[in-house]
Structures are given as structure tokens and as C-alpha cells.
Amino acid sequence: MGVPALGSRFAIKMATYYTILQSMFIFGCISCQYRLMVYHVSFTHVDITKMMPLRKIWDIFTQMSHTSSKQDSIDNKTAGVFLLDSERQLNQLLSSYKSGHTVPIHVYKVLAYRTYLQSVVLCAHARPGRNTRL
Amino acid sequence: MCLRQGLFDADIVLSPTIQDFVSTSISEAFPWRLNIDSLDLVAILYSMGVLCYGVLYHATTEKMRRNDDVSEDSMVTPAHINNDFLLSDIFFWLVLFLLMFVLIELASSISSVALSVLCACNYTLLLYLACAASYCPIEIVKPITLFMWSVHAVLLLVVTDASVLDGSCLIFIDITLAIFYYINVVEKDMTIIKFLNVRLWATVMLNFCFIMVYVNNVLCIDIPGT
Q: Among A40, A52, A98, whose Cβ lies nearest the Cβ of B35?
């Protein structure tokens, strides 16, 4: 017999019935409260202005490396003082960077939707470090 | 803070203070939200797609039997695919896309819809290009498209955190589609009925895997008193 079994009329009829049965099965499961649940991750109000740019990190890196190379040439007693100074300097840098980006009005530019929609979120500073969205 | 310099990359390890600051600034810039969603709508669409494909197959074969101009045993040509079997072909690839989307979503622990759509689209498109390469006069296109699809199929297996059953079904789907590719591209004498049958049986095999994954992942959310 030259005709393959999967191409026979009976097999094809069975396959067609199968497509109907599977559809009934899926509908039956969903109507009986059996659901497919998944975790979805999505980003809301993406605002990259809060991110520290890599150029800034590189500046800090080079500055700190320069300070540590200076320290190597100094004796152990004074090194501790310089280490504290460098930590303080780093903290000052980071805090100044953080405070420099707390603007009272923030504009989120949403380019992903191609409508160039700009949603404006007003951040009223009731207290330092506490924002209220209107 | 230290800097490791490799041949092709430079890896910067920041001090804990800066590392904490950078991590915080990035998490503030991208406030991510975790949702628990259901895939029921896509599952229904897929299921209806398979049903429609079965009905469409029946209608096409019946139409061919009534039509004396086109025989089931005549060779399939691009003109046939672009006219008589266009709808049937589109349905097949659409069903495959939906199936891959559902499987990627279910196989991943946490997924992003846009990323899953992109992966499913790439997978389907690469296989379509690999199968369509048989009509392309340039021979080199065939191995390239097949290689690209194979790499994508393996990457999907690696990237997703599929369980044993889900992963087995993904592998079975890849094997089924590899056989589908072989029949379409490598085997000669592609008749019209063979063209239609190979798509129908591929759909049935893929749907069998889908049912297995579906039954494995389905949850009863019947809350008493609601």
C-alpha cells in the first residue's frame, strides 16, 4: 500500500475530531475554574535620570584610585587618617549626587508608545526625602 | 574599588558603598512590578486556532475533491501556497506562534510579556524562513536559516527554567518541527495533499504537547464562597 497511514481518510478524520475535542477540553477546564497562572514582570514609570551614569562612576573610580595611590607612599600611622578622609570624600560625592537629583517637578518622557506622550508627575516635597505624587 | 582588565573586557568591581548606591539608583529608575496573570485568553485563542485549522483543512481538502482542475497528487507550487492555501498556511504559523508564546510563558519562572512575544515571534519566523528557503534559488540560505532556528531552539531550552515534563515537551516540539522541516525541505516530491497533511499532523503533535503542559501547569482557583 503506497499511501502512508497518517494520510488515510480515517486518520485524517480522527485528527479533525481531535482538534474539536482538545478545544472542548480547554473550554471545559477554564469554565471549571482551572486556570493557567504565571508571574509577569513589568516596569512602571521608567525614569533613568535617577540612575548614576557610568561616566560619573568612572570619575569617582579614578579619583579614588588617585587618592589610594597617594596613600601608599605614606606611613601606616597617617594612612588611617587619609582612609577616613577618602571615605568622607566618597560619601560627600554620593550625597551631593543624590541631593542634586531631587527636583520638585519630574517629567517622564514615554517614548515607547510612539505617541511622544509626556506624563507629568508633580512631586511636592512635604519633608526632605518624602515625595507626594499628585 | 578594583579593575580587572581582560583581553576583550574590563570588569570593574566597585566598593560596597558605591555598589549599594548604584543598585539603589537603578532600582529606583526601573521600578518593577510583579503581577500574577492568567494565560487563559491565549490558551483559548490557541485552542480555537487549532480547531479552525482542522476545519480549514477539511474545507480545503473537500474543495479540492470537488475541483477537477487541481489534483491532490499534483506538485505544490509557490502560486498554490500564495493563493489556495494561503489562509491555511497563515493559520498554521499563527498557531505555532501562540503555542510557543504559551510554552515560553509557562516554562519561565518569571516572564515579561514583550520578551515572550519576541522570543515566540523569532522562533516561528526563523522556522518559517528555514522552510521557505526551499523555494529560494540560493543554496546557502538553507543551512544558515536551519542553523539560526536550531540555535534559537536550544537557547530557549537553556534560558527557560522548564521542569522535567515541560522541558521534555519543549524538546519533543523541537523534534517534531525538525521532522516537519525535513519533510518540507529535504524530501522531494511535495504534493498538495502532503503539504496539507504534514501541517495538520504537526499541529496535532504540537497540540498533544500543549495539552500535556497545560494539564501539568493548570491550577484550580475555585475559592469557596465567591
A: A40
| pTM for this entry | 0.74
B35 pairs with which residues across the strands?
A: A40
* pLDDT class of A121 with cuts at 50, 70, 90: very low
Domain enclosing residue B12, as ranges: 1-32
Which residues numbered 116-145 in B keep a CB inside 8 Å of some CB on A? none
Q: In chain A, positions 7-26, which contact chain B (CB-CB < 8 Å)?
A: 7, 12, 15-16, 18-20, 22-23, 25-26
**CA distances for B161 relative to B56, B106, B110, B111, B171, angstroms:** 35, 9, 9, 11, 13
Per-residue pLDDT tens over the stretch B139-169: 788 888 889 999 999 998 888 888 888 899 9
Let me know whether B212 and B155 are in one domain: yes
Return d(Cα B198, Cα B187) in angstroms, integer.
12
Residue B207 has a pLDDT of 94
B11 and B49, same domain (yes or no): no
